[in-house]
């Protein structure tokens, strides 16, 4: 790491304005790329007033009246960040005010890379992690993220430009943007290796050693986290990075970050603030979701601390917050819990985040833990899933992932809907898009709840029969499907050990056999 410059204090002020220029389609269109506009059109997301730039006269007025310089603006929150030359003015003179302190550091120089070779399906150390959520199924279908883009928000990406696992990103021009919002530079390969660790779970590709969840996706690497301190400035950096991601047409944001308490206690959030509408970073995450971006955020690592709850922006109501389990699928006690302050299910899903095989600074793997390492497993897998069905929206993808999770019908505050099954999520989207005689079950692993979708048998009386794989009859039930061909079923087999069960479906009105499926039954 390069030598540090002397610490410098600077007072900033964040102001959110009440008025904005009227919506003009051409002006709004100029704020985003052609790629972003095409994706908006594909997914039916119109341009809106939030795409309009901030009123320049507001900026000029604040600069003159407060003797300040505008550093950044946010079109989404209609706000500006100003560096003050004098003392903070009285709070009553503006809409919102926060005093923020930040520091500046010197940067290292970019280092050259070596050539490498690739293998798309030889997972090596990452095999079990990806297998837990059935990501290899998507790769085998030909979806490894080729047409998708993921923005990674973190504290730094040290060693990314030096390790073999990431060489393909540079050689194949897969890194489409870099920016350090903390130090105002495009160089991001410094300050922290945490972003490199996180990126590895998605982008890594090395023969027989390690394959990420979306090794062929395009990536934007953004530093939003100041690793030297905790302040509200970091939430503003997150917002600015999200707006940049939107302008580039990014599909997914992976954020292994969270905010609750700060170096200045007066800035601390309370649990009541985690209502999906209060903090700057949460409002930014929800706005990104409104623009069609799928936001995946770590739940937090406070499960065993006095705070214990999720952190912002995991409380956002239109994103996927991700908790952690171990290799056996069991909750690990450091994983932050829900619900949100307004009692919504949080986290939505969970996956392996305890002693994950993590890429280290020397290219070797080591066991690392945290919801930071669970979130990118979901984000990269979601990219491959969305690649298969690009016409669906971010909310469709979230819904399919949630429905595929193993406790979808009995969510809790620890794992939410549970561990996703991306093969099941793929099937759900496929059967909705291409109705046939296929039978879709979700979740595919359960103890006594599941949903069956029979798209061609709507409002029909169905007989459901359970058998063991050896043919033993266990349970029979008759129930009507709804107008979508769906049955929500609760059943109990208390004396049965865990095993795979066969389920047969018959139309009781005409006696015809519809089909069969399998489910992994977790015995009591």
Query: Which CATH class of the largest domain is shown?
Result: Alpha Beta
Biggest sheet: strands side by side, in what order? Answer: 5-8-4-9-10-11-12
General form: globular
The CATH homologous superfamily of the largest domain corresponds to Peptidase S8/S53 domain
Low-pLDDT ranges: 1-8, 90-120
Strand content: 15-25%
Q: What does the main sheet amount to? A: 7 strands, parallel
The overall pLDDT, averaged over residues, is 88
Rg, rounded, reads 24 Å
* Class inferred from helices and paired strands: alpha/beta
> Helix count, per DSSP?
12
Helix content: 10-25%
CATH architecture of the largest domain: 3-Layer(aba) Sandwich
Distance between the termini: 53 Å
- The CATH topology annotation of the largest domain reads as Rossmann fold
Number of strands: 22
Number of domains: 3
Overall description:
- The chain has 524 residues and is of the alpha/beta class.
- The protein has three domains: 12-93, no CATH class; 127-427, Peptidase S8/S53 domain (Rossmann fold, 3-Layer(aba) Sandwich); 435-521, Immunoglobulin-like.
- 23% of the residues lie in helices and 22% in strands.
- The protein is built from twelve helices and 22 strands.
- The strands form six sheets. Strands 5-8-4-9-10-11-12 form a seven-stranded parallel beta sheet, with helices on both faces. It has a five-stranded mixed beta sheet with strand order 16-22-21-18-19, with no helix packed on it. The chain has a three-stranded antiparallel beta sheet with strand order 1-3-2, sandwiched between helices.
- Helix 9 (280-290) links the parallel strand 9 (252-255) and strand 10.
- Helix 8 (233-248) packs parallel to helix 9 (280-290).
- The longest helix has 18 residues, at 371-388.
- The radius of gyration is 24 Å and the shape is globular.
């Amino acid at each position: 790491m390069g030598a540090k410059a002397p610490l410098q204090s600077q007072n900033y002020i964040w102001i959110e304005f009440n008025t904005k220029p009227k919506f003009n389609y051409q002006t709004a269109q100029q704020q985003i790329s052609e790629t972003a506009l095409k994706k908006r059109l594909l997914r039916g997301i119109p341009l809106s007033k939030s795409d309009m730039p901030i009123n320049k006269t507001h900026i000029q007025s604040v600069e003159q009246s407060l003797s300040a310089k505008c550093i950044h603006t946010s079109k989404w929150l209609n706000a500006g960040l100003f560096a003050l030359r004098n003392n903070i003015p009285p709070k009553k003179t503006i809409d919102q005010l926060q005093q923020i302190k930040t520091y500046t550091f010197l940067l290292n120089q970019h280092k050259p890379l070596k050539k490498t070779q690739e293998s798309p399906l030889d997972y090596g150390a990452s095999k079990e992690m990806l297998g837990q959520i059935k990501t290899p199924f998507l790769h085998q279908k030909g979806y490894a993220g080729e047409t998708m883009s993921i923005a990674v928000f973190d504290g730094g990406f040290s060693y990314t430009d030096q390790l073999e696992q990431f060489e393909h990103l540079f050689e194949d021009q897969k890194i489409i943007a870099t920016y350090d919002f903390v130090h105002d530079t495009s160089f991001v390969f410094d300050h922290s290796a945490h972003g490199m660790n996180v990126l590895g779970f998605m982008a890594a590709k090395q023969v027989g050693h390690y394959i990420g969840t979306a090794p062929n996706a395009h990536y934007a690497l953004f530093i939003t986290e100041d690793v030297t301190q905790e302040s509200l400035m970091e939430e503003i950096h997150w917002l600015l990075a999200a707006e940049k991601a939107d302008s580039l047409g990014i599909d997914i944001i992976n954020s292994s970050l969270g905010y609750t308490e700060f170096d200045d206690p007066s800035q601390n959030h309370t649990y009541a603030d985690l209502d999906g509408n209060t903090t700057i970073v949460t409002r930014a995450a929800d706005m990104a979701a409104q623009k069609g971006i799928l936001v995946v955020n770590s739940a937090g690592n406070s499960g065993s601390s006095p705070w214990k709850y999720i952190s912002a922006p995991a409380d956002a109501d239109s994103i996927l917050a991700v908790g952690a389990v171990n290799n056996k699928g069991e909750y690990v006690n450091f994983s932050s819990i829900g619900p949100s302050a307004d009692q919504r299910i949080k986290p939505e899903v969970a996956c392996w985040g305890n002693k994950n095989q993590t890429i280290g600074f020397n290219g070797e793997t080591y066991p690392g833990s945290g919801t930071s390492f669970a979130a990118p497993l979901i984000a990269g897998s979601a990219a491959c899933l969305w690649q298969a069905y690009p016409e669906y929206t971010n909310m469709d993808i979230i819904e399919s992932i949630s429905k595929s999770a193993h406790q979808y019908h009995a969510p809790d505050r620890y794992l939410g809907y549970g561990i996703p099954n991306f093969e099941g999520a793929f099937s759900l989207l496929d059967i909705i898009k291409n109705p046939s005689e296929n039978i879709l079950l979700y979740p595919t692993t359960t103890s006594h709840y599941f949903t069956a979708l029979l798209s061609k048998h709507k409002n029909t009386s169905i007989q459901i029969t359970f058998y063991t794989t050896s043919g033993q009859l266990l349970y029979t039930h008759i129930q009507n499907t709804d107008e979508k061909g769906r049955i929500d079923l609760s059943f109990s087999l208390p004396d049965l050990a865990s095993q795979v069960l066969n389920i047969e479906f018959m139309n009781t009105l005409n006696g015809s056999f519809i089909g069969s499926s399998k489910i992994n039954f977790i015995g009591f």
